[in-house]
Design goal:
Blueprint lengths: L7 E4 L13 E8 L3 E5 L2 E5 L3 E6 L4 E6 L4 E8 H5 L5 H8 L3 E5 L4 H11 L4 H20 L3 E3 L12 H13 L6 H7 L4 H12 L3 H19 L4 H7 L5 H12 L3 H9 L6
Antiparallel strand pairs: 1-7, 2-5, 2-7, 3-4, 3-6, 5-8, 8-9
Helix pairs in contact: 5-7, 5-8, 6-7, 8-9, 8-10, 8-11, 9-10
Length: 271
């Protein structure tokens, strides 16, 4: 499902997530006291104990598993803000193409995030200060060495949810093609009705909805990073027609493609 987080920070009371979600933010996840597993675009990435993952949350994702006793802190920064912060170009490109970056957490980050969680929204001056500190964190992540996991470089889950993860992984790497439910189900060796039932139970959405989410995320990336026309973007993102692209984009983003492009390229009130 799509949610709006905005500039926020917190501690997850229930670390693992039964269903995937998406929101138009850059997200940083910090695992404290042990390892955690992030599922992003249907593929899994291991976050080491006291390590972090950073990614664009517009691609469906969830915290799939943690070691016992692990605490998860998270920070979300609206994508429009992150794009206005002049991040290193390779880091910005990694985020927009759906890569997951892993890095060792600075020793002070856990305490810093606890402070941010208390200060964001409590006072306008303190909130502004935390925004500048979050900007500094992202700049450092981008400038320093990190492990970059490209889209498709993770591993498919094993166990009871492996079929749903395999479906999500297949969609995330083939969404630009003309896909039918039968094609997707056949790729993971399931009957279409069985595939649909398993996937909805795992993600909370239908296969068709997840396919649309992936196409919308690609359209967002193209709107931000290229000069392509909406007709070209509709084709490149797999929609098949401009009218279908427009209707689906508005449904998922609550704004027209042209307005989204303007907002992301010329954000108001950001620095």
């Amino acid at each position: 499902m799509h949610e709006d987080f905005g500039f926020a920070c917190g501690l997850s009371a229930t670390p693992t997530m039964a269903t995937a979600h998406r929101h138009d933010d850059v997200e940083i996840v910090l695992a404290l006291g042990g390892a955690a597993t992030m599922e992003h675009g249907g593929l899994r990435h291991q976050v080491a104990g006291d390590g972090c993952a950073v990614f664009w949350a517009g691609i469906p994702h969830r915290l799939a598993d943690t070691e016992p006793g692990v605490a998860i802190r998270w920070l979300t920064v609206p994508l429009v803000d992150a794009l206005a912060w002049s991040l290193p170009e390779d880091f910005r490109a990694d985020l927009l193409r759906g890569a997951v970056s892993l890095f060792p957490a600075p020793a002070v980050l856990a305490a810093q995030m606890a402070t941010w969680a208390a200060e964001i929204g409590s006072d306008s001056v303190l909130t502004a200060a935390t925004r500048q500190e979050a900007r500094g964190l992202l700049l450092r992540i981008g400038a320093r060495g990190r492990i970059r996991h490209s889209p498709g470089s993770g591993v498919v889950a094993s166990g009871s949810d492996r079929h749903a993860a395999a479906i999500a992984a297949y969609i995330s790497t083939h969404f630009t093609e003309e896909l039918r439910i039968a094609d997707i189900a056949g790729a993971v060796h399931l009957h279409p009705s069985t595939a649909g039932s398993i996937f909805r139970a795992h993600t909370g959405v239908t296969i068709g909805h997840y396919l649309a989410q992936c196409r919308v995320a690609e359209a967002q990336r193209l709107l931000i990073s290229t000069e392509a026309t909406t007709t070209d973007i509709a084709h490149r993102a797999g929609f098949g027609s401009t009218s279908r692209f427009y209707a689906t984009f508005v449904e998922h983003c609550q704004v027209a493609p042209a307005a989204y492009r303007r907002a992301m390229r010329f954000p108001a009130g950001t620095s």
